[in-house]
Structure formats: C-alpha cells, structure tokens
Amino acid sequence: MRRMLCLLTMLLLPVSFCSAFDLPVSLPKPPVPTINLPVPGLELLRKQGPWITTGIADAVTEVPFLDHYDPRVLTPLDEMPASPTGERLVLPGAYDFYSQTYCLHAGTYAPGSHGAGYLFAPLQGPGATVLTGILRNSCAHAEIPQRNVQLLIWALLARTPLDQCSPVLQQTAKTLLSSSEIRSLQPAALIPDNLVHQSFVGLPGPVQQALELEANLRNMFANKVSDYTQIEGVAVLNGDPPPSRDNRTVPAFRWSYAPNRYFVAFAPETYHETTIQYSLPAGVSVEYDARGRLLSVTNQRGDQITAEYADDLPAALSGDAGVKVSALRALHFTANNALHPGRTLGQDFQNTGYVLTGLPSGKGRPSAGAATPGLTDRYTWSVAHRREVESLLTRADKSMSRPPSAAVRAQTLARLVDLGNFAQALWEVLSAAREQDPSTDLLFANPAYEGWQALLLQYGHGRVTLTPPPGQVSFAPHRTGRLAFVSSLPAAVATMTRAMYGEDPLAPLVPDDPLAPLVPDPDDVASPSETGRQRLATSGRDAGNDSSTASGADSGVSPMTPLNPATSKPWTSADSEDDNPDADRNHPHRNGSSEGSQSSSSNHSTNDQGSNASDDSAATSSSSSSDGDQAGNDSRSTLQKILDVLFPTAGQVNRSLGGDPPRSDFDQVSTPQAFAWQPLSPETGFSEPRRLAYDAQMVALLDWWSKLRAAQITRDRLGGAYAASDKAGIRRQALALIEQKRQCGLAAMVVADRMEALAALTPWGALRTTPAEALAARQADLRAHGLSAADREAGQFLGLTDEEMQGLTEHFLDLSADRLQGNPADLTARNIARLRALGMMWATLPQAPPGG
Predict the structure, then answer these.
(1) Tell me: the pLDDT tens digits for 508-536?
(2) Rounded to an integer, what distance in angstroms lies between the CA atom of residue 557 and that of residue 227?
(3) Please, which residues have CB within 8 angstroms of residue 127's CB and are 6 or more apart in sequence?
(4) Cis check: omega of the bond before 470, within 30 degrees of 0
(5) What's the Cα-to-Cα distance from 794 to each of 24, 641, 642, 802, 811, rounded to whole Å?
(6) Rounded to two decimals, what is the model's pTM?
(7) Is 588:568 a contact under the CB 8 Å cutoff?
(8) N- to C-terminal Cα distance for the chain?
(9) Residues 93-145 pLDDT 10s
C-alpha cells in the first residue's frame, strides 16, 4: 500500500505543480495497438506504389552545356502544318509551344515563381500507358475542357473506381479511353474509410501522407464532388515546399535531351500552362583545317562563325598529349537579322582567346607562365564536358535498336567534345566583350551549339558515318518526333495513321525527308528540380485555346490581339518605341543578348494570332482617305472599296487559313495569282506624294492578298491529302504551306512599311469623320441597302465568292464602334504594329534545306 501511495504521489505532483503555475500538462501517450485485421487493398497499394512514379531521379539527360544556347528564332509550333490528330509537321529549327499541362502529383506545390527549373524525364509507373492514351486522345477532342481531363487524372491518381465518379468524368473516360483500358482501371476493393488512418500505421511519414491524400481525393470523387476549385484546393498546394536533400539546382529553361528526338526545355507558368521549347537543328556544316581544328560553322539559316588561328601553344599544357591549345588570331561572326530580313549582323575580334582541341584525359596541367589565362578552369570544364557527352551518348545508345559501331561512337565523341570546346571558347570571348560593350550579341555563338545538337541527334538516328578530318562535315537533316501510337487512337484514325506511316510508329514519313512529325509527347514529363513541386505531363493542346483556363475569353484580351514579343503581353498602342516588335531587344528568356532573337511568345494567343490587321483597318482607312483633297471620282471610289473589302477579308483568311472542306487536287501546288493594279491618275485629287504612296500601298496589299489566297488553297489541299492518307500529297502541301506562310510574312512586313509611309503623308487634322463615325455610316448603309455595286465590283476584282462577300457583310455589321474610339492616327499605328508583328512571326518560319 505504501509503495502504491508513493507511486500515486509521484504521478500527481507534476500535475498539481503545473496547475499551480498554469503550465501545460504532458501525460504519457498510450501505446498504439497493433492491428492484425486484414485490410482490403493495403497490400495492393504497398505492392504497386504510386500510379505515376516519374521524379527528378529519372531526369538523367539534362544538358548544362546548353545553358548558353538561346535560339535566335523561335517558331510558334502551332504555326506549322498539323494532322487531324495533332501532330505538327516541322522542319529543322527551334520551336516554342504554350502547352496545356497536367498535375501528376496531387498534394504537392504548384510551380514557383523564383525560377527553379524543370527537366525532361520519361513517364513511368503502372498508369503510364493509360495516361499516355488520355493525353494523346485529348488532342483529338478539343470539346473536352482541360479541367475535365485534369479531374480524370486526379481521380485515377487516387485510384478511384470510375463507376464511383461523376457522370461527367465517366463520360470523359469513355471518350478518351478504350473499353479494355477502362476495365483495367477497376481496382480491387480499396481500404474502407473507417480503416484509412489505422491502415497506414507503421508506414514512412511521406508514404502515409500520400496515401491519406489519395483517400481524401477518392472520397471526394466517390461523393460526386464536381467543384473544380474544391478538388484543386486539396490537390494543389500554394507557396514553397520545405527543403529536401533530393532537390537539385537547375536554372529555368534548362535544356534536356529527349534521346533521338529533340532537345526540350520547360518553363511552367502554372501547373496547367507551360511554355515548352524544342530545338531540332540540322543542316549545319562544320569545316576543319589540316590540324583538325574547327575553321567554320554555318547553320541552315546562313549564320556563320569563322576562326583564324595563330600557332599552337605546345608549352601551354603538360601531361595530356591528346589536347592541343591553339591561340585565335581572329574570329568573324555573321548572322541574318531575324527582325529585318535581308539585313545581316556582324562582329569581328582580333587576337583574343584560345581553343582546346582533342579529348582530355584529366591529367593535364597548365604550364607556369603560359599566356593562356583561365586555362586551368577551361581544361577542367573540358574534362567535365567529355563526361557529359559520354553520358548522353550512352543514353542515345540505349534508345536505339542497333547502336553504332565503336569507331563511329569514338569519332562522334571526339567531334562533340571539339564542338563543345569551340563553343565554350566563343562564349568566353563574347562574354568578355559584353562586359565592355553591352550591345555585344551573345547569340553569335549559336551555330556552334546547333552543330553540337545536330551531331548528337544524327548519331541517335544512326546516320553518322566515318569521315576523318580534315575536310567538311555536314550534319544533315534528321528524323525526329514520336508519332502517336496507333493502339491509342480511334479505329478510323489508327487506320489512317497506319496507311501514312506503316505499322511501326517510328517509321519515317519519307526516308531522309527533312519534314518530320512532332507533337508535344505525353511521355515527356516536366520534372521539378524541387521535389516538393508538381511534376507535369505535357500535351499537344494549346493552352491559349481552352476556355476553361485562365487565359480564355474572360481575360479581356481579344483572341486576335498579337502579343508584344518583348513582354509576352498583348500589344497596345501605348507600348513604347523600345518595346516595338520590330525593334532590337533583349531576349526574354535566357542570355539577354542584343538584337538578336525573335522569340515569338505568340502561343499565348490563338493560331494566326496577329491577323486582325485588321477588323478596324477598313474603317480607319475609310476615314483617312477623306482628307483635305476635296476632288473625288470613280477611280478614287474604287480604290476605297477595294481597301474596305481587302483589309477585313485578309484578316479572316489569316485567322482561318483554311477550314473549308478539304480539296482533292492535292497533287498540284498553288501559286499566287498576280493582280494588275492600274495606278491612280492625277485627277483623283490626291497630292502627288500621297497618290504615289497610295499606289505603293495597293501594290503591296494586293501582293499580300495573292499570297494569302494561295496559302489558303494549300491548307485545304493539305486537309484533302490527310483525308486520303496520301503521303506524297501531305509532304507536298505541308512544305508548300510553310514556305507560303513565310512569303506571306515577308509581304505583310512590306505592307506595314507602305502603310506607315502613307500615314506619314496623311493630314489627320483634316479628317471629316472619325473611324467610329465611318463604321457607323457603313453599317447603316449596309442594313438599308446591302452591298453596293462598287462593293461587288471590288469583291470580284479580289476573286471573292458570294459566300465570302456575305461573310464580309456580317463581319462589318458585327463590329463594335467602341473598338474605333480614339485618335485615327493612333488606330492606324496600332494596325501597322499588328501587321508587322504578324509579318515578323511568319517571315521567320524555317525553310526547307536545298533539295528538300
């Protein structure tokens, strides 16, 4: 009894002490009882693991070497010809795409704003095949909102039986999955709700947390919760995740190598919208001298680097006979100006820098007193680069059914390391020059980086042949991209795909054809370098075209408003001259080079986005023609009617560039039909400078119009070739369409220049009507009398059909005068800016290599 009282006193004293001083009481917790009851589904979960397992550990092909590579020209991927199932046919070049992406890791943090990078990793896990089918087929079902696709993915990540989901999600699954795939998703009985927390006792903390989150989501879906925001609140965390020892330091937009396909970089804006860049260079020529040193590198666009060497410096490095150090006597850089076709850029450097040539062993040591500053760091870099290249070649080998011979591999390794050393030397020269002169163009080094990429891609396609230097080596166009697997497509589409490409989904469209299919591949996962953030599945759906995303119709931005490439925001007349898209600018993404890059950033808007140049142009031109020149006659009236018809109709053609029923004459190639413009006579009442400016504008407009019509016909013929599964017709029309759109871009830039010249001669203060008043008068006349004889004459002159004229009438009647409020000169300047932005975007589309 006494021992019992002592024990009781010892237990109660701390309680009474804490109570006296208002301190918290800490009592021992009872032990958690061990549960021996069988829990249905737990063993299945422990055995299978997560439905999708891809993580940063799977990102093994990042390419730090390419951190200095920034494409001078980025072509919007959605400007390239497309198949009915979403594959884009591309030429060698660099592309960007504003992709709808999907969260693959519920309960983690959304992409951050502080620049942590994302890397390419292959899609892996028990659900990889099903998820690939969902994302591929979503491209053919644009009617399904992105949110529904994401909800279906979250439901499957949580292992929710589809028959417990809402009717909307069940229908989404039936549309995007086959019956067998749906049957495979019906799991065994999962853990009952009342046993969830008990079932996870003893599991590691992160695993327990993940399984509890799955259970919460599964309950929400099973209870038919359909509010996206409510489910998103559970699946998506905001803020920054706690640090993890598994995190990696990766800058934004770091390139990764997707073996034997392309180089890819990701920059998520949100978890459901990601900018993706693809690099697929080819047609790069590299010239060596008799000592095996690189003399010149020329890319397909004609940008060139030329090196002149002084004598080698044999005393600069000891301990590594395989590496030579060569001083540079001169470097010459030239590049085509992407923003001003026909102009070139150039810069020369004398007696600066040096280049390493040869495979480093890692045993070299710089000699004391050698006139090679930084050689220790450069040699260390070269050794690390050799390891980087060897790792990438190994990854390429694993992706090939028959890797190249050891001799080919050794030669490719040597050439890649030499190109890497050459590029690093150029980068150091240009970087040092930029410290003294901020206008130095860092993108002059691009051909060396592109040649390096082209050679690695060519190796991955088994097309490297033994060609011992000295001499000239051409890294020829290559195949790339992965076609949609036919097993995941609807039966009719699968039949068409087999007919086009054969049973092998990797079979080329045409052997050695530079035109290659590319689609943002659902097997490509953007894996975050911070492991607590969401991994993202990419898709071929354009994020700018889905009304369920934040960038849809509620944004207040017209879907036809072009973006200012310098800011990635809608272009407005308030943008400063420095932000004008035809001005030289710093690149918005990586290196901040001068002049140089035409980064479209155009994928935030709809396809052919700059093309409303313009809905309001006709009204503006109507007003601007009514100036102080009082005399008027039939010639002047015809001119105005043609302008009224041409501007908005050209905009409509730009926007759709096709869309009519497919044409069956895809064995022919459309050519622009020239218009004979009769110059205005002096009796029109215009002053001679303005009359000549009007004539020049009309000639440019009609040339642009003829090219647009040819491209429209080509687009319809491409649709016919796809419908007929005619490989030769697809190739013919796709190549023609790319080149015709490029020519349309060049023509649009000429129109913008001619419009600007005419605007400079326009006496804006003498205008009798505002653009809004001109539009109101035009609409009133149309409602009262319909199209006039002059309207129809103008339409006949331009070759418009009756349906197109009727569509033009409806277009005019639908226009809002609110858009035309303001100074006519400012409205005209806005239209010129839009037209120039469209022109620049199309003018920089890639060209087929000679013989392509």
Answers:
(1) 223 345 666 665 677 789 999 998 999 99
(2) 26
(3) 51, 52, 156, 157
(4) yes
(5) 90, 6, 5, 12, 16
(6) 0.80
(7) yes
(8) 102
(9) 999 999 999 999 998 999 986 768 999 999 998 889 999 989 988 988 889 99
